[in-house]
Amino acid sequence: MTVQQSGRRERKKAATRQKIADTALRLFLERGYDAVGIRDVAAEADVAVTTLFSHFASKEALVFEQDEDFERRLTRAVTDRAPHEPLVPALRREILALVRHCTADSAAPIWRMIDASPALRKYDDSVRLRHAEALATAIAADPTLTRSETAARTLARFVIDAYSLSREAPDPEAALDEIFPMIEAAWAAARPPHLT
After folding, report:
1. pTM for the whole thing?
2. What residues are annotated to bind DNA (predicted)?
């Protein structure tokens, strides 16, 4: 298989995934999350149910279709930051960008739908835990950070909670301004293992 064929296949796969996600979100917002089944989404997107499940593991995953991108952005805030750039400001910058995206007017109906559904709230909780673990892994793997795995996991949980708390706040940026100095202080207090 040539690289061109592989690239075309990946683009087609990505387009199908996006079509399914867009269709699902439209149907959920029009009819209500609980009123729409997987078969409804597949039929409307003109794909087989098996095709839908090859892209999304569950009905809830259709709502959180940008979940993998969110996780990549968080880990890249660690791995792609400039040499000698402090970690916490890099994380704050990325969290601010994600919060701005998620608090845009266009996102409000989606968050209302999530907040109204116990299944979606539970799924959101599991997604946040997974993001915290991925972020912790990236932090712990960075040889320049020299903190314990426990410190990395703690920082990651704080950062994910900062995202959630600020997204729900009346003034998200003010909330981040209040939260991140506490995160910075906690990270500074976590001495590298060889210094304790």
Report:
1. 0.86
2. 37-56
